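The instructor's notes for this session suggest beginning with a concrete chain rather than abstract definitions. Hand out the sequence below and ask the class to guess, before any prediction is shown, which regions might be ordered.
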Amino acid sequence: MAIGDQGADQLTLFRSAVRLACRELRGGVRGFRIFLACLVLGVTAIAGIGSLGASVTAGLRADGAALLGGDVAVRVLYHPATAEERRFLEQSGAVSEVVTMRAMARSSDNAKQSLAELKAVDATYPLYGALSLDPARPLAETLAERGGVFGAAVDPAVASRLGLARGDRFRVGDAVFELRALIAHEPDASLTGLAFGPRITIAAAALPQTGLIRPGALVGYEYRLKLPAGTDAAAWTEAARAAFPDAGWQIRTADRAAPSLQRLIDRIAFFLDLAGITALLVGGIGIGNAVAGYVQSKTGTIATLKCLGAPNRLVFAAYLAQVLALALVGIVVALVLGALLPAAAVPLIARLFPVAPRLGIYPLPLAEAALAGLLATLAFSLWPLAAIGRVAPGALFRDTVAPTRRRPPLAAIAATAMAAAGLAALIVLAAPDRIVALWYIAGAIAAFAVFRGAGALIVRAARRLGRSRWIAARPLIRLALANLHRPGAPTARIVLSLGIGLSVLAAVALVEGNLADEIDTRLADRAPSYFFIDIQPDQLAGFEALVGATAGASLQQVPMLRGRITRLNGAAVETAAVAPDARWALRSDRGLTYAATPPAGARIVAGKWWPQGYNGPPLVSFDAELAHGMGLKVGDTLTVNLLGRKITATIANLRQIDWARLGINFAIVFAPGTLEAAPQTHLAAVYLPQSEEEPLVRRVVAQYPNV
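After discussion, reveal the predicted structure:
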């Protein structure tokens, strides 16, 4: 046969299949209602979650300059920019300096206190966006000095904890402030890490009066720049790093204004996507069951068509066309619902994010949802549809009393496997954490195999039990068992559906229950009552005396510094191959300490601890999990930037850290002899009876306002 003839035959086959499918669909979609419901539910979940995540991400990018406070933000710890660095910044554009640190706010009688994030701003703040105050008034007027007292704008939580009203005075460190306004909206709310408390905003001129700027105190100096129009922020960043390679700057641009929040959104969206995929897979079982039931109900029609001379491929194509047409309708409906979901969800989530989601149509998540729905439809429907080719014409007369056992051909099995593999590939490629996605796929495959096998075992057990004399003497039980293993019984499919569905519900309940139990019972038993931070070295003895004088109190304290890992085995961290789950340790400064003996509860899994009295080249003890993610081992080196000084140390040992102990743990512990002379503070974990908690805090804050 010529190629042209083959093409004509294929076109004729296609037209005939479409005609037959349209005739079948004239009778309605009664047999496909479950099919459509399962498909719409799963695809809507994926499309809605993806669209919501995309709208929040678009909001972050659109308001990036306001969130960051400038086109570019340069941050450095412990010390302000040098005169030369400041000149460079001022020559680049308009500059606003913001100083942030932790502090304890106290009522004027010292009876109440609250941990807070202190923020000192200059006259140009904010460069972008607007700070909304209650009552509405200019920020400069709110923070100005009057009668020797500076004003402050505070988060409502601070006013509530301290029992303050507008016009009342309170203390921060050694300074007295007057509460003149509440912060209603702050455009550059802290998004880059953990906020230790609600915000207190003061004028930069008032900061020296607090007495909180001390050597080693964790103070962040941030310089926000409004660049001239047309200036490329990325190019400026490269130029700044080249001009001051040892400045220890952390530079962010407006398109990456809130990386921590973006990662959080991506991870939440990822796990919600997995929940949507799970809904689609559970619905896929319903799709398969619906198609199998529909094919079974059409046995007579199929056999009649074959008796009239219809080839197998025509009948298969006709019913596949029905499935795909209905799938297309279901997917379109689901995409519309998914695209509308962000609009419905915005009123519920508006307060959770610092920016308003940008509503719109986002093609990528909708395309991913549509493709997932199509692949799931093919993966779950091709197998039962393939049985059509095995319906012999004689089945028209005997299928009611003796159903034919139909096995799909190898081509159908291969097509089903390809559709399933495509769905798995889509999940992995769209996931920000591909390791988790692969584990999810492995778990899904295992669950399907286990429950499909369980269904087959139930059928086999029912067949064997039905032959026993005890069952034979009990007609009702015999009939029940016979229905489980009769030809065409949906037993295996029902077991699979129930097993997967109940497993999802049980998994959600168990995860929630275990987390609640861990937080409410186990962690609470081991957690310190308080962490005291920023204890100056000359205050340590007095602080320990206060704790020692408290009945039932004990403490654990270590020196604490902050540094950023800049090189791994001599290679810059930006170019090093680092696993995604270890990247967090390289994004900003990390807490570190030094010790002569291993930390409490430490388990050394590689290498050895340094000997007593060690005073040689820099050595570190490193977190074993981070080392694995960074490709490091004992004997390798890492470089830490500490106050602009680069310290390269050799990894002496690796520790397995149990972060759930909630005690004092550091990923990086230096050997003695390297960091003792550096500016530092002390961190203390205090364990004490609940009745002594508030009295101790009041005594510490009264004696050491900076702690």
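Then share the key points. The mean pLDDT is 80. The radius of gyration is 34 Å.
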